Amino acid sequence: RKSDELALADPDAGPAWLRAELLLATVELAAGDAPAAARALDAVAVTAPDLKLDAAEHPPGVRRAFAEARERVASRVLERRALDSTPPGADVELNGRLIGRTPMDLAAPPERCRLVLRRAGRKATVTDCAAGSGALKLVLPPSEPADRRAELALRQKADPAWRTDEGMVRVLLDELDADWLVSLEVAEASRFVARAYYRLGHRWVELPATPGSLEEVAQRVREVVEATEGLAVHVLDTARGAEIEARAGDPTAIAHATVHVRRGGEPGFRARPLAAVSAGVFRGPLAERGSGPSALAYHVVGTDDRGEVRSRVGTDRAPLSYALSGSGVTAERPLWTRWWVWTAVGVAVAGSVAALALTRNDSVTAVY
Hints:
26% of the residues lie in helices and 35% in strands. It is elongated, with a radius of gyration of 31 Å. The two termini are 48 Å apart. It has seven helices and 22 strands. The relative contact order is 0.09. Strand 9 and strand 10 (203-206) form a beta hairpin. The chain has helices spanning 2-9, 14-30, 34-47, 60-74, 145-158, 166-176, 214-229, and strands spanning 79-86, 91-94, 97-101, 104-108, 114-118, 125-128, 136-139, 180-186, 192-198, 203-206, 231-237, 241-248, 256-263, 270-273, 275-278, 281-288, 295-303, 309-313, 320-323, 332-333, 342-350, 353-360. The chain has 368 residues and is of the alpha+beta class. The strands form five sheets. Strands 10-9-8-22-21 form a five-stranded antiparallel β-sheet, with helices on both faces. A five-stranded antiparallel β-sheet has the order 15-16-12-11-20.
């Protein structure tokens, strides 16, 4: 019975457990204890119903008893129970066989019921699902950083279609501390089929067209990132002065916006937070009429809830400009540009597929 304890302690102990149970059944039959041998062979039949015993290794009596065990097991009624995990999306192995992914409806055998749950970036979790009844929910703790990276590398090498697994993609982005991943697949005539995954939005974003070069991929990605989460800014000339509004393409990406303003002749910019009037929408005064020169230079910075810069519209060195009108007649002037510098911080290659994890930085590095 020690083999059962070891099997629950080690998620990869399945083959060794089968050999131990078959040896136990052989010994029990030789000792004349048929019920004990039947219990061991029933457990083997539940775990490996398609197993064929080698005549050179197992005596005829053991092979006959195993055939009877398979018939008994096949006729039994399975207990159905809900199975889930935290986080969800874990691969489920029942008695060594892959049967699905959480959340799922589990058909549990009445005796041996050994579950192994595996998910990228998490430690494999083993449990005895024959104990107890009702819904079952397991927590998969995070794996160690070194183990996680080795697991990611192995998964990418072994599975060319790993990028279609959203859970795997999110684990990779978390590991690289990136917000975007671009999947590139070589098509005919040396062209790429490209898609971008946005971590904060939990979704794939299609690129506008199939790019034909890496330079075109870079341009399409810039356009997609800007349109998805960047700030759009416009200035309104009112009777009181200039009002500015900044809108985030993705309200979940930008929590705060600050405008930096400099009037003509002033030595530096003055930072002024914009008020959040709704999710992803920020407004505030740019300059009051009659408070100085009408020529303005400004730029806007958007940050997330951790204070990290997520978008810039203009910079100190390349600001936007605006001139207050003399009449105060309302007139929109969308004189803004978007500014992104992003870095390819990781390139993972699996067959003809590559993935670029994107962040914003002031350097460009590609690691193969």
